[in-house]
Amino acid sequence: MKWKRSERLVDMTQHLLDHPHRLIPLTYFASLYDSAKSSISEDLTIVSETLEARGKGHLLTVPGAAGGVKYIPKLHETEIRAITDELKERMSQSDRLLPGGYLYMTDLLGDPDLMNRIGKVFATVYANQKIDAIMTVATKGIPIAHAIARHLNVPVIVVRRDSKVTEGPTVSINYVSGSARRIQTMVLSKRSMEKGKRVLLTDDFMKVGGTMNGMKSLLAEFDGELAGVAVLIEAEHTAEVLVQDYVSLLKLKQVDERNGSIVLEEGNYFQKGGTQS
Amino acid sequence: MKWKRSERLVDMTQHLLDHPHRLIPLTYFASLYDSAKSSISEDLTIVSETLEARGKGHLLTVPGAAGGVKYIPKLHETEIRAITDELKERMSQSDRLLPGGYLYMTDLLGDPDLMNRIGKVFATVYANQKIDAIMTVATKGIPIAHAIARHLNVPVIVVRRDSKVTEGPTVSINYVSGSARRIQTMVLSKRSMEKGKRVLLTDDFMKVGGTMNGMKSLLAEFDGELAGVAVLIEAEHTAEVLVQDYVSLLKLKQVDERNGSIVLEEGNYFQKGGTQS
Questions:
Q1: Rounded mean pLDDT of B47-57?
Q2: CB atoms near residue B166 (< 10 Å)
Q3: Strands (DSSP E) along B38-95, which ranges?
C-alpha cells in the first residue's frame, strides 16, 4: 500500500517523537511507506521545519550509508521559562512548608506531565553533550531521572541507601552529607553500570551538594566521568557548594516558618545562558 | 500566519501525542493555525485514521460546546505481544539469577524506552476505565507507575516503607508480606491523595500479592476504590493470590539455581483477552 504524504507526515512525526536521539535510517521510512527516498526527504524537511518553528526541537540528518535522521528534542527558551515559572508558582504555595523548614514537593514529582516537561528542559540543556546514563538516588530523583533519560534515550541508574537482595553484588561508599555533616552510605549494584561511562547526575533538591558529591565518588569507583549535575531546586546557603558545573532551574532563597513564606528565584540555568555545549 | 495542511498535521500530531487523555478544544487548533474549524476537523480525521492504522491509538471526539478531541493511546494486540516477547526474552537470560532464586531486573526498570512501551501496554488495558491515580511502592515500581500515568494523564502516588520529614503527616498501616508472612509497614503521605479516588496499583513483581494487599488496605484508609492491579511479572506459587482482578504480562513458572534456568510464560493478560472494560 502506498501512503499519502499527509499520512506519512502523521506517522513519521509520531515515530520520530517516540524515539528521541535515535538514528532512523531513511530506508526504514522508504520501505514502510513504499515511497521514494526523495519523497521521504521532502517529508522530513516539513517535519523538521514545523517542529523547529514550534520550539519542539529539530531533526538531525546524518549523511552516508549508515546515516539517517534523528529527532533532537530542544525547547525554546520561552517554553523553558514558562515551565520554570509554573514550577516556581506551584513551589511557592505556603502550604508546602513542613516543620523544620522542609518543603513538600511529592505531588510535583508525581505529576507525569510536569516531569515530562522538566525532562525536556534538561534534555535541551544537555542535547549536544555525550551522555551515557542518568544517575540519581532513590527515591525522589527517580521520576526526574526517567524523564530526562527518556528524552536523551539513555538508561537510568538508581543509587540506594541500602543494598537489597534483588540487586546482586554492590559497591558501597561512605560520604558526608553536606548540611548535617553526618556520615552516610550509598550503594550501587555492580551490574547496573559498565566502567567508563559519562554520567549526568540528577536530583530534586540540592543544598550543599553532599548527595551529589557522594554520587561522584560512586561514579569514580566505576571509572565513570561526570557529564554534569541537573537539579530542580538548589537552596541558598553560606557553605561552599561541593560540586561544580551544576544546573538548577530554581533557587530557594528563604523559608520563613512563622509567616509561612517561601521565597524562590530563578536558578543558575538562567545566568548560564542556557544550553551546555 | 496561515499554516499549510502539512504543517498542521505535523504540529497536531506532536501536540496530541504529547497530551494523551486530555481534551483539546477544536478552537485551540483553529486559532493557533488561523484555520477554519472544518479544515481542522478534516486534519483530525487524517491524524486519527493514520494513528489507528498504525496501531498507536485513536482520537476520541467529544461533541458539544465543551467538546474537543482527545488522544487515546491504544496499542495493537500484535505490538503488546511483541513487547511482552521482548521482556520475556530479556528476563530469561540466565545471568539474571541471584542467590536465593531472585531475579535481577534493575536494568530493565532503568530502560526508559522499555518502560515507555510497557506504560502504553497498561494504558491500553485500562484505556476505557475511570482511573484517578496510579499507586506503587518505592522504589522499583516507580518507573512503571510513571510510564502508565504519563499515558493515562493521571498522577503517581508513591507508598514508602518508612516516613520521611519531606512527606509531612502520614498514614501508616501494617500488613503481612505474602510469602515470608512477616509483618511489614507501609506509609503514605496524607496529602498525597484526596479521599474517594479510583486507583490502579502497580509493581514490577508479584508473588502472593502481600504488597498489593497492603496498598489495598492503605487505599481503604483514604476511602479509595481499587481500579485494578497491573504487574509486569507474577510468580507461580501454591498459595492463593491475595488480590483479584490483576493483570500480569509474564508469569515466572520456575527458577533453577543449579542449572541457571529461568522459565517464563505469558501472563494472565493473554488469557483474559486483553483490554479491561
A1: 97
A2: 16
A3: 58-62, 68-72
Per the structure, how many domains does chain A have?
2
- Enter the ipTM: 0.96
Asked whether residue B53 falls in the same domain as residue B117, the answer is no
How distant, in Å, are the alpha carbons of A13, A25, A230, B22, B204 from that of A45?
Answer: 11, 15, 32, 29, 41
Q: What is the CATH number of the domain that holds B31?
A: 1.10.10.10
Question: Looking at residue B13, what is its pLDDT?
Answer: 98
Residue A273, in any domain of the structure: no
Q: Say what the pLDDT of residue B276 is.
A: 56
Residues B101 and B195 grouped into a single domain: yes
Residue B205 has pLDDT above 90, yes or no: yes
Most confident option among A154-168, A238-252, B14-28 = B14-28
Cβ atoms B132, B197 nearer than 8 A: yes
Residue B44 lies in a domain: yes
Window A:146-165, CB contacts with B under 8 Å? 146-147, 149-150, 153-158, 160, 165
pLDDT of residue A276: 56
Q: Is the dihedral of CA A125, A127, A132, A138 positive or negative?
A: positive
**Last residue in a domain, options B48, B73, B98:** B73
B23 with B119, same domain: the answer is no
Residues of B with CB below 8 A from A18's CB? Answer: 17, 116
Domain presence at residue A277: no
DSSP bridge pairs for A125 = none
Whether residues A89 and A40 share a domain: the answer is no
d(CA B131, CA B72): 14
Burial class (CB in 10 A: 0-12, 13-18, 19+), B228: buried
Closest partner residue to A106 (CB to CB) among B5, B6, B189 is: B189
Using a CB-CB distance cutoff of 8 angstroms, which residues of chain B are in contact with residue A79?
Answer: none
Residues 168-227 of A with CB under 8 A from B: 168, 189, 191-192
Do A95 and A206 fall within a single domain? yes
User: In this structure, are strands B156-159 and B133-137 parallel, antiparallel, or unpaired?
Assistant: parallel
DSSP state, A100? T
Q: What is the CATH number of the domain that holds A135?
A: 3.40.50.2020
Residues B98, B68 share a domain: no
Written as nine digits, the cell of B110 is 532503568
Report phi then psi at A114, rounded to 5.
-65, -45
Q: Are residues A15 and A93 in the same domain?
A: no
Structural contact between residues A126 and A227, judged by C-beta atoms closer than 8 angstroms: yes
**CB-based contacts of A230: which residues, under 8 Å, 6+ apart?**
A122, A125, A126, A144, A148, A200, A201, A202, A246, A247
Q: What angle do CA B137, B150, A98 make, to 5 degrees?
A: 55
Domain hosting residue B58, numbered range: 5-73
For A219-242, write each residue's pLDDT tens digit.
Answer: 999 999 999 999 999 999 878 888
Q: How many CB atoms lie within 10 A of CB A223?
A: 11
For residues A120 and A247, membership in a common domain is answered with yes
